[in-house]
């Protein structure tokens, strides 16, 4: 069966919902197709103790503030899931679940969106599939030789799963620091980072990161010199558990090891550490395999864009993923503006 909708939004996480909010306001006919069985996108799958790096009011989608979470300045993931569930109900967003998009093809005037539940024909497609579904693991010699457990951020849940074990956490970003802080009391922890960890000042959080990302984008767009953006501030927001572990002197990082051995890891100077598990907090890539038939992939697995529009396929927009689809587009508070721009551009073409 082939369905028709003016616009198909692929992905029903925060980015897809923000797009839906603006499409609805503009009176565009659309559907959101989401592979998950429930609302909340990637937030349904994070580790139990995850803290947002901004307070609730600074983690809001267009139209509706995220309510504060009682007793917590930086809300947890479950709070975000509840907010997103409420958001899609409140705005009656037409999300179909679970529907996995397998591929998007050109079919004359329209784009054909092939799914595991039938096909849709659309005059425009917004891809908002996030990055959680494509964990990145660096190529490190000996990775196949290690006899213990190796997992990525996406598989980590709670410290009890590793109680009393020798665990190595790899990565100096927010995930690495939060997971290291989570594990430090219950395990024999080694935290390794490629460069010394850079904590933001305690009074700086995601609000400042958002401002810095926006200022950088504006400077580059206006041909001024690069402000350095978020990278100029530091990498790690000192959310309460990270701050506490750091202040107690428990969050000390070692440099990155150079290879894995059957029973652990080895550094360049020959020093070794034994390990039962290695948790790779080493980032993500955009989940874009459904767009492969369009043959748009450029460097680093990305697609060249003008704003949110694919440079070589004007019927396709990309939302979320990273700064390359709009300043702070891969954040709750940041996705609103590019979502509005994408919806406006699409509405202008359709009418
Ligand atoms: P997702 O939440 O991943 O949603 C994408 C949806 O698309 C999912 O439901 C997925 O199932 C679906 N999908 C994927 N492929 C297909 C397909 N082929 N067909 C149909 N559906 C598909 N941002 C903040 O603002 N504050 C924070 O504190 C913060 N902390 C973060 C902590 C971590 C550990 C990570 C990884 C990110 C964090 N972010 C934070 C960044 C960002 O807000 C999240 O990554 C967020 O989940 C991105 O939303 P999204 O809608 O773009 O993608």
Describe this structure in words.
This protein has 351 residues and is α/β, with parallel strands linked by helices. Helix 3 (174-183) packs across helix 5. It has a seven-stranded mixed beta sheet, covered by helices on one side. The protein is 21% helix and 22% strand. It has helices at residues 14-25, 77-90, 174-183, 206-221, 240-247, 336-350, and strands at residues 2-4, 7-10, 30-33, 95-96, 101-107, 110-115, 118-122, 124-127, 149-152, 166-170, 188-193, 253-255, 259-261, 264-266, 272-274, 277-280, 305-306, 309-310, 313-318. The mean pLDDT is 93. The protein is built from six helices and 19 strands. The longest helix is centred in the middle third of the chain and has 16 residues, at 206-221. The radius of gyration is 21 Å and the shape is globular. The structure holds flavin-adenine dinucleotide.
């Amino acid at each position: 069966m082939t369905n028709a909708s003016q616009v198909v939004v692929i992905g029903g996480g925060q980015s897809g919902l923000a797009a839906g909010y603006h499409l609805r306001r503009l009176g565009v006919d659309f559907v959101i197709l989401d592979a998950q069985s429930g609302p909340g996108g990637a937030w349904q799958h994070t580790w139990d103790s995850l803290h947002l790096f901004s307070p609730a009011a600074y983690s809001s989608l267009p139209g509706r503030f995220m309510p504060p979470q009682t007793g917590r300045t930086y809300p947890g993931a479950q709070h975000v899931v509840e907010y997103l569930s409420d958001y899609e109900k409140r705005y009656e967003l037409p999300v179909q679940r679970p529907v996995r998009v397998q591929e998007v093809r050109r079919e004359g005037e329209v784009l054909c969106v092939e799914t595991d539940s039938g096909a849709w024909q659309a005059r425009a497609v917004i891809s908002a599939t996030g990055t959680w579904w494509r964990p990145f693991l660096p190529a490190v010699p000996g990775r196949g030789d290690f006899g213990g457990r190796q997992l990525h951020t996406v598989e980590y849940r709670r410290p009890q799963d590793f109680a009393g074990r020798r665990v190595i956490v790899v990565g100096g970003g927010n995930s690495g620091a939060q997971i290291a802080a989570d594990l430090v009391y219950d395990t024999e922890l080694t935290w390794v980072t490629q460069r010394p960890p850079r904590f933001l000042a305690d009074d700086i959080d995601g609000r400042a990161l958002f401002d810095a990302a926006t200022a950088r984008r504006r400077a580059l767009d206006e041909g001024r010199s690069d402000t350095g953006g978020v990278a100029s501030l530091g990498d790690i927001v000192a959310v309460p558990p990270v701050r506490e572990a750091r202040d107690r002197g428990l969050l000390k990082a070692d440099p990155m090891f150079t290879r894995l051995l059957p029973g652990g890891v080895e550094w360049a100077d020959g020093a070794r550490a034994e390990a039962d598990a290695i948790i790779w907090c080493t980032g993500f890539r955009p989940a874009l395999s459904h767009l492969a038939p369009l043959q748009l992939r450029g460097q680093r697995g990305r697609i060249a864009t003008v704003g949110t529009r694919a440079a070589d396929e004007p019927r396709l927009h990309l939302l979320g993923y990273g700064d390359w689809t709009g300043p702070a587009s891969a954040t709750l508070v940041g996705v609103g503006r590019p979502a509005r721009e994408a919806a406006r551009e699409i509405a202008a073409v359709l009418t």
